[in-house]
Amino acid sequence: MLGRLGWSAFPLHDPIPLVASLVVAITLIATLLWTWRAGHFPYLWREWATSVDHKRIGVMYCALAGVMLLRGFSDALLMRSQQALAYNAPGYLEPDHYAQIFSAHGTIMIFFVAMPFMIGLINFAVPLQLGVRDVAFPTLNSVSFWLTATGALLVNISLFVGEFAKTGWVIYPPLSELRFSPGVGVDYYLWAIQISGLGTLLTGVNFVTTILKTRAPGMGYWRMPMFCWTSLATSLLIVAAFPILTAALGMLTLDRYLGFHFFTNEAGGNAMMFVNLFWAWGHPEVYILILPAFGVFSEVVATFSGKRLFGYRSMVIATLAIFLLSFLVWLHHFFTMGAGADVNGFFGVTTMIIAVPTGVKVFNWLFTMYGGRLRFTTAMLWSVGFMVTFVIGGMTGVLLAVPPADFQLHNSVFLVAHFHNVIIGGVLFGAFAGVNYWFPKAFGFRLDETWGKRSFWLWITGFYVAFMPLYWLGLDGMTRRLVRYDVPEWHVWLLVAGGGALLILGGIACQIVQLVVSIRHRDALRDATGDPWDGRTLEWSTSSPPPEFNYAMLPRVDGENAYWSMKRRAEAEAARPDYEDIELPRNSATGFVCAFFATLMGFALVWHIWWLLGLGFLGAWATFVVFAWRDEEHRVIPAVEVATIDRAHRAAARKAAA
After folding, report:
1. Hey, how many other C-beta atoms are within 10 angstroms of the C-beta on 607?
2. What CA–CA distance (Å, rounded) separates 529 from 293?
3. What average pLDDT score do residues 123-141 get?
């Protein structure tokens, strides 16, 4: 009846996951009870859970990423504290539990923190920057978000029902095959990533279509904001790369569930082929994450330098070069495979070449800042901190691109330091810059700058204290994933790294305080103009927060930095549009309901509960049938209501400017 699920699946005799499960359960129940007693459920269902508005979906992506950041960082604290205590001692984590923690940390941070942050910013900002009212497929956008949330939920369920993978986040065979991982941990990974990966793939299709087909009148490709270009490249990478991951995980699933032998060497398979497929997706994935961050930094640097972005066309060409070259570098992740000098040399050279367009971007940002009227807001601090940190990470990446050097450093914590140097210094700093930059556009008030700057300094200091020692430890021979060690020279550096993790914890705490203080003082931080930063792109021409239809009349674009040009010609105030009725898609529960049934199906597949799998499949099929046969797809906002909303924004902006 319940397949493999039994009492042994619950951590009743393991205090750490048991206490963590109880804390999570109590927090969740308390939150639901408070929401119910406060009467917020109808509002949350109507305005958020069933929304197809790209802005709200973008906010929900970022909120999901923020929650999962807390979850993933808690794993990082556990690992750092274990290694600080594990010199000639067992520490406080069992090896099996430690293996689950470092697998969960990598999986959560890549798939459910970095990806949702970037996709959330793309969802929120790109349609506004393009001067359109929504994405090409609004309901599909909602489905994409809720499928991502399903994957995150399945990973968290493994905390207290069963276990998570003990293989690392890359789940290489043969360790991930049924023979060596007979438990449900790898299955949780497979179904969480397959379901969330489907949502990501749909997002890629949606934004490729949106950017290529639904721009404002007059906005040609060479007039698109830089963030739109990097979002287009990211979306194309998603469409091209995620099917590779889907295929690789699908074959591993067939190995585990039906006894296939794609990756079992003794039965004619090839485990190394999984590694090739995984990194053929995995290195484009690095650029799926970093390219939107590059776009954020381009917008932030230009705005807070008070200048047009230097070398716009070279930035576009560099973005497209990174897009193409990202598919030619994957083998540098395993130079030690034994492919031969010619193959290793080719991929080493391509890895060095891909640093060139990245360097072009860094120099263009510096030239944009040169001679500008710099304003060091929180978003600008994150951008400057990124430039320094990411350049260091890039240089260590070029070092690892040299095959003989990689032979020495492969599987050492030097690689861990490099990877975090790029992902934290690039992706997370970009996410934090984007959140601080677009927060007033999303909610109508700015984030508190004092607490924002405190969080920045704690984060960047903590990062260097936590990860610079790992470069030295890697050079000294410390390998990854050690649960205990007996080398006295390593101990002091791991204590220092643990202190850095505590500083980062302080940075996260400051970000939480920043949000709370900003909400409490929102009246003082209110943005009535819609343009708190003196912005250059179209999103700043509408109110903060924007109306659900974004623009009363679609803007007409006649050059780069569309809104900057409008302000210079005072068109924003002079225009008196002829208002018309606006059609918008209706809210839909399709995404939420699909996610509910996808969760049932994923859980059933993990535990082999076949009747629950059939029930979930029928529910998902019925949901799509109902959606396909619905009669009313749009609702109309009358021209009178559009005029009232738009004129109120214009009046508030004039009053604030005066």
Report:
1. 21
2. 26
3. 95
Calpha distance 65→112 (Å, rounded): 6
Q: Say if CB 329 and CB 354 are below 8 A apart.
A: yes
Q: Which residues are catalytic?
A: 61, 71, 75, 79, 102, 123, 134, 141, 144, 148, 200, 203, 210, 283, 285, 287, 298, 314, 358, 361, 418-420
Say whether pLDDT at 656 is over 80: no
Nearest to 121 by CA among 382, 274, 297, 272: 297
More confident residue, 23 or 298: 298
CA distance 419 to 402: 16
Alpha helices in 158-308 (DSSP H): 185-213, 226-258, 271-305
Please tell me whether the peptide bond between 17 and the residue prior to it is cis, using omega within 30 degrees of 0: no
SS3 584: strand
For the stretch 245-282, pLDDT in tens is: 999 999 999 999 999 999 998 888 999 999 999 999 99
Q: Is 50 strand, coil or helix?
A: coil
Amino acid identity at 502:
L
Structure tokens at 573: 């105030």
CA distances from 326 to 268, 281, 332, 611, 631 (A): 31, 10, 11, 43, 44
- The 3-class SS string of 484-548 reads CECCHHHHHHHHHHHHHHHHHHHHHHHHHHHHHHHHHCCCCCECCCCCCCCCCCHHHHCCCCCCC
Q: How many helices (H) and strands (E) does the chain have?
A: 23, 2
Q: Which whole-number Å values give the CA distances from 449 to 377, 379, 459, 518, in the listed order?
A: 7, 9, 15, 9
| CA-wise closest residue to 561 among 371, 310, 357, 386 | 310
Global pTM exceeds 0.85: yes
pLDDT at residue 632 in the model: 67
In one-letter notation, the amino acid at residue 172 is Y
Q: Would you give the DSSP letter of residue 370?
A: T
Contact call for residues 401 and 332 (beta carbons, < 8 A): yes
Structure-block tokens of residue 623: 């949901």
Query: Which pLDDT value is given to residue 306?
Result: 93
What's the mean per-residue pLDDT of the chain?
Answer: 93
**Cβ 524 vs Cβ 292: under 8 Å:** no
